[in-house]
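As noted in the main text, all predictions were made from sequence alone. Below is one such record, for Ependymin.
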Amino acid sequence: MYAAITLCVFMCLTATTHADHHQPCHAPNMTGFMSVISLKGDVKAFGAFTYDSMGKKLRFRSNESYPTNTSLGLDLLMLFDEGIFYEIDSKNQSCEKKTLQCTQHPLDIPDDATFMSTVNSGSPSIEGEGIKVSVWRGAMADMKGHYCMSVTMGCLPVYTMYFHESSSFIVSLTEVEIEIKDPDLLAVPSCCLAQPLEETPEGTVNSFLNEFM
Ligand SMILES: *[C@@H]1O[C@H](CO)[C@@H](O)[C@H](O)[C@H]1NC(C)=O
Ligand SMILES: *[C@@H]1O[C@H](CO)[C@@H](O)[C@H](O)[C@H]1NC(C)=O
Ligand SMILES: *[C@@H]1O[C@H](CO)[C@@H](O)[C@H](O)[C@H]1NC(C)=O
Ligand SMILES: *[C@@H]1O[C@H](CO)[C@@H](O)[C@H](O)[C@H]1NC(C)=O
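Prediction:
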């Protein structure tokens, strides 16, 4: 993994790209754990996620059993196709419904990403001791940064680094299974159903990534 990160940083900082005809793949349905760590070392969030790749829905709940004083208490349901998301507080059954201004997120390679290369982390020749990933890069939606994403040959995201002028962080996915274990997590919770859509203040951008910036 570290070799791949180093390579990723190196490739992302150099402007050369391979002339290529690669098309970004799309991840399947997934359940697993996601961690978001700033490049300064702060753990921003760690918790379980559920992703519907066709329906373009993502639930992410940060796990308060792993408290660090920099982590955010988050429970997000993002409906990318509808362009809205919910911030859920299950403790007091409250919910906020907001508009998404940007749908970029770390579980899917954006269609306009550029293929960089294929790398073997660990050993390519010893069974079970290596992982082969393809590395993609592109601009963040506001053009004030870029990302570098690596996915397995089956298109499971391993990690994505976001280098942004306001903050840089790495998102990594672990214990991924290619099914939706609990579909109820992708249904809008009852406390959210009657919620009016909140107005987005002028100058605010709502997106999955902005939750960590
Ligand atoms: C992914 O999950 C959705 C929602 O549960 C389901 O409708 C869809 O068929 C699943 N896709 C695959 C390829 O299993
Ligand atoms: C939080 O982590 C604990 C310990 O790993 C686990 O038992 C629990 O189900 C997790 N909760 C959530 C909401 O992910
Ligand atoms: C977080 O913890 C570190 C070390 O324990 C401490 O130096 C820092 O002030 C804490 N930050 C906050 C916001 O409490
Ligand atoms: C629910 O709790 C959160 C913080 O714990 C608070 O910000 C929010 O205002 C509360 N909502 C209601 C409706 O009490």
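Residues 2-212 form a domain with the outer membrane lipoprotein receptor (LolB), chain A fold (CATH 2.50.20.10). Residues 69 surround 2-acetamido-2-deoxy-beta-D-glucopyranose (ligand 3) (CB under 6 Å). These features were considered when defining construct boundaries for the mutagenesis experiments described in Section 2.9.
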